[in-house]
User: Fold this.
Amino acid sequence: MATLREYQFDSQADRTLLAELCRTVDRLREVQAELRRTGLMVEGSRGQPRPNPLLAVEGALRRDVLAHTRALRLTSLEV
Assistant:
């Protein structure tokens, strides 16, 4: 809610984008929690260690958060 006190979102498009940003941040936090639980490396189909596929998801979500933040011209968002 600090974001709503600090910034003004006049258009419906900005409010929609803000809602999407919030959903994306929530999902990013879920993915990060799962990565902490399962680790950065997981067992592959043949038992070999391989990077956790959630790392790619985390990267994509981070890029989405950055894009939404830039589109809304936010400067002090903490994730």
About this structure: The chain has a mean pLDDT of 91. Strands lie at 41-43, 49-51.
